[in-house]
UniProtKB/TrEMBL annotation:
<keyword id="KW-0813">Transport</keyword>
<protein>
    <submittedName>
        <fullName>ABC transporter permease</fullName>
    </submittedName>
</protein>
<feature type="transmembrane region" description="Helical">
    <location>
        <begin position="134"/>
        <end position="155"/>
    </location>
</feature>
<dbReference type="InterPro" id="IPR000515">
    <property type="entry name" value="MetI-like"/>
</dbReference>
<feature type="transmembrane region" description="Helical">
    <location>
        <begin position="12"/>
        <end position="30"/>
    </location>
</feature>
<keyword id="KW-1133">Transmembrane helix</keyword>
<dbReference type="GO" id="GO:0005886">
    <property type="term" value="C:plasma membrane"/>
</dbReference>
<feature type="transmembrane region" description="Helical">
    <location>
        <begin position="275"/>
        <end position="301"/>
    </location>
</feature>
<dbReference type="InterPro" id="IPR045621">
    <property type="entry name" value="BPD_transp_1_N"/>
</dbReference>
<dbReference type="InterPro" id="IPR035906">
    <property type="entry name" value="MetI-like_sf"/>
</dbReference>
<dbReference type="GO" id="GO:0055085">
    <property type="term" value="P:transmembrane transport"/>
</dbReference>
<keyword id="KW-0812">Transmembrane</keyword>
<dbReference type="Pfam" id="PF00528">
    <property type="entry name" value="BPD_transp_1"/>
</dbReference>
<keyword id="KW-0472">Membrane</keyword>
<comment type="similarity">
    <text>Belongs to the binding-protein-dependent transport system permease family.</text>
</comment>
<keyword id="KW-1003">Cell membrane</keyword>
<feature type="transmembrane region" description="Helical">
    <location>
        <begin position="101"/>
        <end position="122"/>
    </location>
</feature>
């Protein structure tokens, strides 16, 4: 196990280096001067421009800029935004909000998605199965901003059960509606994945053997059917959790959530190159860590998986 973890970390290093290089290249190596763009239509003082370019190392060759940035990452220094605020301070302010939103959404989609998918798979062809498939198809077909606006109107304006926007400090109760909206599409995907996997697993020999030995459904369904049906679901949840953690830009924007996605979008609009690069770098790190953890979790779900060369 230790050797496998070490190999996975070694494999993640070139992925991290390659993605950070591409991100930095796409932001800073393209035509145009981000410092001049900060001044808009005004003509900046050349001395001020030179000072800012030196401060952000933009007067250096591109490869030197990248190496300086990479060295800062290994020291835990993600640089300064163009407003002078450390990017780590921005992350420290926005990431906890997005983390709360992501965990809430993940709990909703995991619990309800697996539950509905399991019942649908066990009752294939029945009314519940047909209804769940129809609902999941509708949710997958609708754009997320449509679901968000409908949720705002129904639960916020019409019924008055929730606030239409997130308040100051992003309290947990204000994040429930955005989390439900964020979880809706993933819920539909998990229902369909779980259903298909349960149907396939239910027809395998070891399940029929378990029933033939006299084991009850209470034993066979959770231990033999559900556990062996969760591997594709866990794979999807891992990817989705990475997406949720790095911020759902549209949902955070509609509900005015002061999280990573909303902040990243504002940074792109303002041309905040250091903020964009640093935020995306953190996203890459999150994806890599989540994927390694999920690979390790597979062994708990399926005893046939062994981490050997």
């Amino acid at each position: 196990m230790t050797g496998y973890i070490f190999r996975r970390i070694l494999q993640a290093i070139p992925v991290f280096m390659g993605t950070t290089f591409l991100i930095y290249f796409m932001v800073f190596a393209m035509p145009g001067d981000p410092i001049v763009a900060l001044f808009g239509d005004k003509t900046p003082n050349p001395a001020v421009v030179a000072q800012l370019r030196a401060q952000y190392h933009l007067d250096q060759p591109f490869i030197v800029q990248y190496l300086i940035y990479l060295g800062g990452i290994f020291r835990g220094d993600f640089g300064l935004s163009f407003s002078g605020e450390p990017v780590t301070a921005i992350l420290a302010r926005t990431f906890p909000v997005t983390a709360r939103l992501a965990i809430l959404a993940l709990l909703f989609e995991t619990f309800f998605g697996i539950l509905v998918g399991l019942i649908s798979g066990l009752r294939k062809g029945k009314l519940f199965d047909a209804s769940s498939l129809a609902v999941s198809l509708v949710l997958i077909s609708l754009p997320i901003f449509v679901i968000a606006f409908v949720g705002q109107y129904v639960f916020g304006v019409w019924l008055g059960w929730a606030r239409t926007t997130v308040g100051s400090g992003a309290p947990l109760q204000d994040l429930i509606l955005p989390a439900l909206v964020l979880a809706s599409v993933s819920f539909a995907q998990i229902v369909r994945l779980t259903r298909a996997s349960v149907i396939e697993t239910s027809g395998l020999d070891f399940v029929r053997t378990a029933y033939s030995k006299g084991l009850s459904s209470r034993r066979v369904i959770p231990v033999h059917i559900l556990r062996n049906s969760l591997i594709p679901v866990v794979t999807y949840l891992a990817t989705d959790f990475g997406v949720l953690l790095v911020g759902a830009t549209i949902t955070e924007g509609i509900f005015n959530v002061p999280g990573v996605g909303n902040t990243l979008y504002q940074a792109i609009i303002r041309g905040e190159g250091p903020t964009v690069v640093s935020f995306v770098t953190v996203m890459v790190l999150i994806y890599l860590v989540v994927n390694i953890l999920v690979d390790l979790f597979y062994g708990l779900l399926d005893p046939r998986i062994r981490y050997v060369k």
